[in-house]
Amino acid sequence: MIGARQDVAEIQLVLNAVANTQSADSEWWRAASLEGLARGARAKSVDTAALKASQELLLKLFESRSNSVRSAS
Description:
The protein is mostly helical.
C-alpha cells in the first residue's frame, strides 16, 4: 500500500525503520517491508522521484549483512 501511494514521507518512515533496526530477529519483517514497498511500487508504476529521496537508505540496505534484506533492497 505504501509503495503504491508513492507518499515520500511514508516511504522514508518505512525505510528508516528497516535501516535502523539491526537485530537478528528483525530480519524477517525488514525483508518483508522492503518486498512490500517494491511490490506496491511496481503495481503502481512508481514515480522515480518518490524513491530518489530514499536512494541513500536503499544503498545502505543493499549493503546489509542480512541476505534477505540485501536481496529485498
